């Protein structure tokens, strides 16, 4: 229950960023950087009086049905929740603080900061093994049936929507929107990689046995120990290697410094770890 509530809170918090970026920074300037946002801009051009939240809701319901039919249930539950929260938060914005005009008159600023807000929120949601709906579902369908990588599938969907929207909102706004796709993608990648960054440690110490036990028992991470020979004095050494989360790395470094101040440690960041103790993901 605790993990469920934590995930619920994180996704809800993330959707506030997505909603704010869409409603206050993109929609007022007719920016259409792909996704359901771009579809909403296209639909609103034909039905100017249509509520943004209603348009987003209808689009997401249709895509969610497609997702359940073509993809499955496990991923769909949280996607439904995210989509409902997105439309609900935007509806609250419409009621209590409607966007009668853009927050600022500078289109480029709205595009950049909108991309940051939306990308940050989507990145957090992706990291919780969920999605905000929209082109994420289209991308998964393209991936499943046409074996297109997810990143390329999202790009294809967003660019298609943006190109169509360009005929409605004009070439200049369309070009801004294409730039928005790139900004949004970069932010999402940075957020996801930031959450998933791990620290690889290579430790050379006479206290290797104590360090190994500490890493196994106290930190809860596996290790690899192998023999090495010093290049200067040809002395025999034991090398301990492991991969840790950032908080675990700090704990391990403090312990090693306490029991062996002369230990030699090399660290580097790792963006993906697949195996026991870490999350397996389907490679596409």
TrEMBL record:
Q: Which UniProt keywords are present, listed alphabetically?
A: Cell membrane, Membrane, Transmembrane, Transmembrane helix
Q: What is this protein called?
A: YitT family protein
Q: How does it sit in the membrane?
A: Multi-pass membrane protein
Instruction: Cite the Gene3D superfamilies for this sequence.
Output: 3.30.70.120
For the DUF2179 domain, which residue ranges apply? 221-275
Q: Which CDD domains match?
A: YitT_C (cd16380)
Taken from the UniProt entry, a GO cellular component term is:
plasma membrane
Where is it localised? Cell membrane
């Amino acid at each position: 229950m605790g993990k469920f509530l934590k995930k619920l809170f994180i996704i809800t918090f993330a959707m506030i960023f997505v909603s704010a970026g869409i409603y206050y920074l993109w929609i007022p300037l007719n920016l259409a950087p792909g996704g359901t946002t771009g579809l909403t801009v296209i639909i609103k051009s034909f039905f100017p009086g249509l509520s943004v939240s209603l348009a987003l809701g209808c689009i997401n319901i249709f895509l969610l049905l497609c997702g359940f039919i073509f993809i499955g249930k496990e991923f769909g539950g949280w996607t439904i929740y995210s989509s409902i929260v997105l439309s609900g938060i935007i509806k609250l914005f419409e009621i209590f603080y409607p966007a009668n005009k853009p927050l600022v008159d500078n289109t480029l600023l709205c595009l950049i900061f909108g991309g940051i807000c939306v990308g940050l929120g989507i990145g957090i949601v992706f990291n919780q093994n969920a999605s905000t709906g929209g082109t994420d579902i289209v991308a998964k369908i393209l991936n499943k049936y046409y074996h297109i990588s997810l990143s390329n599938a999202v790009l294809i969907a967003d660019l298609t929507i943006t190109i169509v929207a360009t005929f409605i909102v004009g070439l200049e706004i369309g070009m801004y929107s294409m730039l928005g796709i790139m900004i949004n993608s970069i932010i999402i990648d940075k957020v996801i990689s930031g959450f998933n960054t791990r620290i690889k440690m290579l430790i050379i110490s006479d206290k290797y046995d104590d360090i190994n036990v500490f890493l196994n028992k106290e930190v809860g991470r596996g290790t690899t120990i192998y023999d090495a020979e010093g290049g200067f004095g040809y002395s025999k050494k034991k090398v301990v290697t492991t991969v840790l989360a950032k908080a675990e790395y700090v704990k391990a470094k403090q312990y090693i410094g306490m029991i062996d101040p002369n230990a030699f440690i090399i660290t580097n960041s790792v963006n993906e770890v697949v195996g026991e103790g870490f999350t397996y993901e389907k490679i596409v």
